[in-house]
Design goal:
Radius of gyration: 20 Å
Number of strands: 0
Largest sheet: none
Structural class: mainly alpha
Distance between the termini: 66 Å
Helix content: over 70%
Strand content: under 5%
Order of helices and strands: HHHHH
Shape: elongated
């Protein structure tokens, strides 16, 4: 029961946790990178320091905690009597290079949007 139920759920959750952390950090780094390009490397900050701390504490940890409590793709009773469900872990179905690449690409896209959409809304500062 412990292996079939909690081991399968743990593999799935850890796979999602790993790619989500790369996604969040990629989005943060690329938003800062693209904003520095937009600000012409002037040293202007897109985020204040307390916002970075708030982002790290709440935006990265709370969604994962909520996901961990609410993530049940099948009932525990079904998982305990169906060992075929555990084959996704053996085949490494949830953590693949394709999944990782897709999440990182979405993080880069979010970084681009985070830097350029507010700048476009406020009239492209630094461009006359």
């Amino acid at each position: 029961s412990l292996l079939l139920v909690h081991g399968r759920m743990n593999y799935r959750r850890l796979s999602i946790f790993c790619v989500y952390m790369f996604y969040i950090n990629t989005a943060m780094v690329f938003s800062l990178f693209f904003y520095s390009l937009l600000a012409e490397a002037s040293g202007a900050q897109i985020y204040q320091f307390f916002i970075l701390d708030f982002f790290t504490v709440f935006y990265t940890s709370l969604p994962l905690i909520a996901f961990g409590f609410n993530d049940n793709d099948v009932a525990r009773a079904v998982s305990a009597v169906t060992p075929e469900l555990y084959s996704a872990g053996v085949e490494r179905a949830y953590f693949t290079s394709e999944t990782f690449s897709r999440w990182v690409a979405e993080g880069v896209w979010l970084g681009i949007l985070t830097a350029y959409v507010p700048a476009a809304c406020f009239g492209w500062p630094g461009i006359s």
